[in-house]
Automatic annotation (TrEMBL), chain A:
InterPro entries: Cyt_oxidase_maturation_cbb3. It comes from the Bacteria. This is Cbb3-type cytochrome oxidase assembly protein CcoS. Pfam families: FixS.
From TrEMBL, chain B:
Pfam families: E1-E2_ATPase, HMA, Hydrolase. The keyword Nucleotide-binding applies. It comes from the Bacteria. Residues 66-132 form the HMA domain. InterPro entries: ATPase_P-typ_cyto_dom_N, ATPase_P-typ_P_site, ATPase_P-typ_TM_dom_sf, ATPase_P-typ_transduc_dom_A_sf, ATPase_P-type_domA, HAD-like_sf, HAD_sf, Heavy-metal-associated_CS. It is a multi-pass membrane protein. It comes from Sneathiella chinensis. It is found in: Cell membrane. This is Copper-translocating P-type ATPase. SUPFAM superfamilies: Calcium ATPase, transduction domain A (SSF81653), Calcium ATPase, transmembrane domain M (SSF81665), HAD-like (SSF56784), HMA, heavy metal-associated domain (SSF55008). Belongs to the cation transport ATPase (P-type) (TC 3.A.3) family. Type IB subfamily.
Length: 47, 779
């Protein structure tokens, strides 16, 4: 069971990484314009 | 370009979500084509934009660049976003242009000194997108901050719930296979505690705060049992962990918080969407007043900044911004938004005019008068305050349920504790059983029962252009048995339309329309709407107060008032004996043609009233207009109970009567004169064209030209009510099964987790039935 000593911290670290990414995306305004994000994928960048 | 637009349209139709889906019914635009067709003309829009004084809204960021926030009209697809941003970004000096499609806002950042704001955004207006500058400080609301806070709490709770569950599943698996040693289990519990306790302390705050506030007022709400269960479960689990006990409920407490936060966030977001849309409508209407300075020059300032005694210039076709007395000029004033009177009233020097009315004919100057105790608006506001006091305070269904539910739950937990103690168990064991009861009964499904329905319902209504402004609006609307309508602007369109189209030669109408589209005057607009502007007319002159003229090779053609077109006062058109607002069209060597206008009924008014009656509702009409007009409308539309010439205080008196007779009234109105009635009725709706005060007072605001929104709102509200009741039923059913097991001591953390999730899912799925099926949808 000593493997748990690694596994649990790794799992927690990955989870915390996800949370940090979420909080970052929230802060950087990615939740401010959800309808716009849905539409922007239709825009071609090349022209 | 056409190909791209077609593809976008297809994809967009498949996605078809959100408020903008209604716009997709028409062809998608190729870079503003549709927008251009809908706008009044770029030149007029540009003048309106300049009149709003955009320079006053330009701010500087930290680096000294200019910032301008604007609201965008007519924007409805991905191509619109691209056209607008491309048009701006290709300009020199523009650093950034960003459209927010959800809130229909545009932010432009450009280098200071590279031109005036108006010239900078000119290309966007030329594309057909009408812009209105606004002050971002005015838009910043506490609710938006609250929403972000809730989302953060949701993220933290989600993180904690998944990770604790990860550990809990291992513990449960260990219990079944019986090969997990106590040391490993303790380690798992300690890790769980490490994650769960800070998460509960952070993410539970919205509930703790609300529960404390309720307790302070000596009341119980749903948040009291929630907070108690979460705190007790965490505390008990911690003490179990310290004593290396077998059962810890960390997963239950964080999952509970996670689920409830989802419900709360959805609820908030649905309302936030409606709120931001409502705010936008009001901001778009916020008019500037054109003030005449002592040196004779004109300046646009916000209406609030107008002081009594200021001279204000009002061009023909614009709304009068302030209460005042005419000192120069003569005109006809459309009072329909204020009094419900549909025929324009003549006003000349010395006459008083009111803010919100429409100046139809000629430019006038007026002296703003003090907004003292004698003005119309202050009368209305006073009436509204009285009316609001008369309105019984509505207690939401969830709170009414909580009133019985919370004490029952606490009593059950107490009984369990005492019971186990009397049966001779340790007090710790008894306490664990009592906490298990609290967790099991904890209203996870109950907490979701109302918000999920609310979200689905307001989303569906938003698609139909109905904004649910009041949080408890849907609940109140479900109970309605009587609908009282205002006439002008509610049953009717509130704008003048050409009614004698068939007696006018098509060629003449098209010719007149070509001239008329050069003017913003309401009557000219009505002509332009009906005719096809086939001829290009470059040199049309507008004569304020009289009409339009253009010189062609065989003489001058005029479109305007009777006198100006040289029509004798006793000349009558044999086909149209009817009185009303009119325009005359005089061409050289031909008999003048008369255009007759009327405020027409909304196109689906008759069907809507019939459908409302069929749904078991009584329908009444209370109009401020004259009796013959009201009678005619009532007869056409099929309303038997009608009253005409009703003053604002008489409207509230009638509502009082209805209330005394035990009726629950939905008031639908748009005018300033309806505002007190809107504030007083059990629930109220107003069209988005309504006066500001009325829109603020109403619980629902509907957009678009149809009246069908009223029917749809009533239907959705009734369906929602049924679903909420069903959801409560399902939640109670679950409790009826789970609580006896908990009291008897059969509940383990695993059982609690499964029961809680299952009941929440059942409630959510039930609520989803409100989502409209795409196929066979009729719009």
């Amino acid at each position: 069971m000593s493997v748990l000593v690694f596994l649990i911290p790794i799992a927690l670290f990955l989870g915390a990484l996800g949370l940090a990414a979420f909080l970052w995306s929230l802060r950087s305004g990615q939740y401010d314009d959800l309808d716009g994000a849905a539409n922007r994928i239709l825009i071609d960048d090349d022209d | 370009m056409g190909e791209i637009a077609g593809r976008d349209q297809q994809i967009a139709n498949q996605m078809d979500t959100g408020a903008w889906s209604r716009d997709m019914m028409s062809n998608c635009c190729a870079g503003g084509a549709v927008a251009l067709a809908r706008s009044q003309g770029p030149e007029a829009d540009f003048q309106t934009f300049v009149a709003a004084d955009p320079e006053a809204f330009v701010f500087q960021d930290e680096e000294g660049n200019n910032l301008l926030h604007m609201l965008v009209e007519n924007m409805h697809c991905a191509n619109c976003i691209r056209s607008i941003e491309k048009a701006l970004k290709s300009l020199d000096g523009v650093l950034d242009a960003r459209v927010n499609f959800s809130t229909r806002r545009l932010l432009v950042r450009w280098q200071a000194g590279s031109g005036a704001a108006a010239d900078l955004v000119r290309p966007v207006i030329d594309l057909g997108y009408f812009l209105t500058p606004y002050n971002p400080e005015m838009m910043r609301s506490a609710a938006a901050e609250e929403e972000k806070k809730l989302l953060r709490a949701l993220g933290v709770a989600g993180f904690a719930a998944t990770n604790v569950m990860l550990l809990s599943v291992a513990v449960w698996a260990g219990l079944f296979s019986e090969d997990m040693g106590p040391a490993t289990r303790d380690l798992m519990h300690w890790f769980s505690a490490l994650i769960a306790l800070p998460a509960v302390a952070y993410a539970g705050q919205p509930f703790f705060r609300s529960a404390l506030a309720a307790l302070k007022n000596g009341r119980l709400n749903m948040d009291v049992p929630i907070s108690l269960a979460v705190v007790l479960a965490s505390g008990m689990s911690l003490s179990e962990t310290i004593q290396s006990g077998e059962y810890a409920y960390f997963d239950a407490s964080v999952t509970l918080l996670f689920f409830l936060l989802i419900g709360r966030y959805l609820d908030m977001r649905a309302r936030g969407k409606a709120r931001s849309a409502a705010e936008r409508l009001l901001l778009l209407k916020a008019v500037a007043a054109t003030v005449v300075l002592p040196d004779g020059s004109h300046k646009s300032i916000p209406v609030e900044a107008v002081t009594p005694g200021t001279i204000v210039h009002v061009p023909a076709g614009e709304r009068i911004p302030v209460d005042g007395e005419i000192i120069e000029g003569r005109t006809a004033v459309d009072n329909s938004l204020v009094t419900g009177e549909s025929l324009p009233v003549e006003a000349a020097k010395g006459d008083a005019v009111f803010a919100g009315t429409l100046n139809l004919n000629g430019a006038v100057r007026l002296r703003a008068i003090k907004t003292g105790d004698n003005t119309l608006l202050s009368d209305i506001v006073r009436l509204m305050e009285n009316a609001e006091q008369g309105r019984a305070k509505y207690v939401r269904i969830a709170d009414r349920v909580a009133e019985y539910y919370a004490p029952a739950v606490h009593l059950l937990a107490a009984v369990t504790f005492v019971g186990w103690w009397i049966l001779g168990f340790d007090w710790q064991v008894a306490l664990i059983q009592a906490v298990a009861v609290l967790i099991i009964t904890c209203p996870c499904a109950l907490g979701l029962a109302v918000p999920v329905v609310q979200v689905v319902a307001s989303g569906r209504l938003l698609q139909r252009g109905v904004l649910v402004k009041a949080a408890d609006g849907l609940e109140r609307l479900a109970k309605v048995d009587t609908v009282v309508f205002d006439k002008t602007g509610t049953l009717t369109e509130g704008r003048l339309d050409l009614i004698n189209e068939e007696s006018i030669d098509r060629a003449d109408l098209d010719f007149a329309a070509s001239i008329a589209r050069n003017s913003k005057h309401p009557l000219a607009l009505a002509v332009a709407r009906r005719g096809r502007a086939v001829h290009a007319m470059a040199d049309v002159t507008e004569h304020p107060g009289r009409g339009l003229s253009v010189v062609l090779k065989d003489g001058e053609v005029r479109l305007g008032s009777r006198e100006w077109c040289g029509v004798p006062a006793d000349f009558k058109d044999a086909n149209d004996p009817q009185e009303g607002p009119e325009l005359w069209f005089a061409q050289p060597g031909r008999q003048p043609i008369r255009f007759l206008f009327e405020d027409c009924l909304r196109h689906d008014a008759v069907e809507t009233i019939a459908a409302l009656k069929k749904a078991g509702l009584q329908v009444e009409l209370l109009s401020g207009d004259r009796a013959p007009v009201a009678e005619k409308v009532a007869a056409t539309i099929g309303i038997d109970d009608w009253q005409a010439g009703v003053k604002p205080e008489q409207k509230t008196a009638r509502l009082e009567e209805l209330k005394a007779a035990g009726r629950t009234v939905l008031m639908v109105g748009d005018g300033l004169n309806d505002a007190p009635a809107l504030a007083m009725a059990h629930v109220s709706m107003s069209p988005s064209t309504a006066a500001d005060v009325s829109q603020t007072a109403a619980d629902f605001v509907f957009q678009g030209r149809g009246l069908g929104a009223v029917l749809e709102a009533v239907r959705v509200a009734r369906f929602s009510h049924r679903l909420v009741i069903q959801n409560f039923g399902l939640a109670f059913l679950y409790n009826a099964i789970a609580v006896p097991l908990a009291i008897a001591g059969f509940v383990t953390p695993l059982f609690a987790a499964i029961a809680m999730s299952a009941s929440s899912l059942v409630v959510c799925f039930n609520s989803m039935r409100l989502i409209e099926r795409r196929k066979g949808e009729t719009q």
